[in-house]
Write a structure and sequence with these properties.
The chain has 322 residues and is of the alpha+beta class. It contains eight helices and 13 strands. Helix content is 37%, strand content 25%. The radius of gyration is 19 Å and the shape is globular. Bound molecules: (3R)-3-hydroxy-3-methyl-5-(phosphonooxy)pentanoic acid (PMV). (3R)-3-hydroxy-3-methyl-5-(phosphonooxy)pentanoic acid binds next to helix 2 and helix 4.
Length: 322
């Protein structure tokens, strides 16, 4: 009745922003990500006869409320698959700051789905676990697999085909991802709420959706050819197109801080100096820079020297949840 799992976070190269079904957490379009090794969640799930409700602790702190409800959505699907009704104690530990806009929901929901399945003796495929983890957080659908991962939008109404699939294993292309943490201050709008507001009110939402499939195709070609300039170009435009749609929602959603903008300029200045480095930004102020291993030291020094950056976390391409 006890299972343990570790799953890594992932960052989207071509972004997910918008749902075609909020209840099933189905994406309006596909997305493509890289799994990162240094940011991971380790989770133990223990199903216990005496528990009245699921309870969750993260990094040693109890997390009743929204975080537990989200975990219960995933646990309910695992219980249904196993024909079980016991409630669970979930102990989760992160290798990085939790809830700070660093994709902790992706790694934590992926680790939870696998740990809970193992605890109940279920041997589910990564695709099936991806569908289950998706109910806790959309991007978690991409965190079961290692390497470069495509989350298909799927066509089935029940969402069973909207799961992550590995396109390439980590060794296909050992790129580096440097995460520049920006001191954020207040809490941001959650991605689910932000997506809803963008879909409801942004005049650019339709244009954003139209941009995704061509970007997915271009990114897959660039990945297959290991063409960093081509991949970087798609990654930056997917990020900027998504943020343009967010910013033009009513009221406008602005996740960036001054340091976020400074980092964008810094990355572009490094490129002008001949380094192969490209940025992406999610629903928060931090900037992730993608580069080849040979440029890592120079990129890292430049990011660390940018005013407002508190820390840089260096990641390689990560493996599957296990
Ligand atoms: O998985 P969610 O619901 O937290 O949404 C993730 C949204 C972005 O991080 C902004 C983009 C992405 O594809 O990961």
């Amino acid at each position: 009745m006890r299972g343990h799992a570790r799953a890594s976070a992932n960052f989207a190269l071509v972004k997910y922003w918008g749902k075609r079904d909020a209840a099933l957490n189905l994406p309006a379009r596909g997305s493509l990500s890289v799994t990162v090794d240094a940011l991971y969640t380790e989770t133990t799930v223990i199903f216990e006869p005496d528990l009245a409700a699921d309870c969750l602790s993260v990094d040693g702190r109890p997390r009743p409320g929204a975080a537990t409800l989200r975990a219960s959505r995933v646990l309910d699907l695992i219980r249904a698959a196993a024909g079980a009704s016991l409630r669970a104690r979930v102990l989760s530990k992160n290798s990085f700051p939790y809830g700070a806009g660093l994709a902790s929901s992706a790694s934590s929901m992926a680790a939870l789905s696998l740990a809970a399945a193992r605890a109940l003796g279920l041997d589910l495929s990564l695709e099936r676990l991806s569908v289950i983890a998706r109910h806790g957080s959309g991007s978690a659908a991409r965190s079961l697999h290692g390497g470069y991962v495509l989350w298909r939008e799927g066509t089935r109404a029940d969402g069973e085909d909207a799961h992550g699939s590995q396109l390439h294993p980590p060794e296909h292309w050992p790129l580096r991802v440097l995460v520049a943490l920006v001191d954020a201050g207040e809490k941001d709008t959650s991605s689910s709420q932000g997506m809803q507001e963008t879909a409801r009110s942004s005049p650019l939402y339709a244009g954003w959706l139209d941009s995704v499939n061509p970007d997915l195709e271009a990114a897959q070609l660039a990945l297959a050819a290991r063409d960093l300039a081509a991949l970087g170009e798609v990654m930056e435009r997917s990020c900027l197109t998504m943020h343009a749609a967010m910013m033009s929602a009513r009221p406008g959603l602005l996740y960036w801080r001054a340091a976020t903008v400074a980092l964008i300029h810094r990355v572009r200045a490094l490129r002008a100096e001949g380094l192969g480095v490209y940025f992406t930004i999610d629903a928060g102020p931090h900037v992730k820079a993608l580069c080849a291993p040979k440029d890592e030291a120079a990129v890292r020094a430049a990011l660390e020297a940018t005013p407002g950056v508190t820390r840089v976390i260096a990641c390689g391409v990560g493996g599957p949840a296990r």
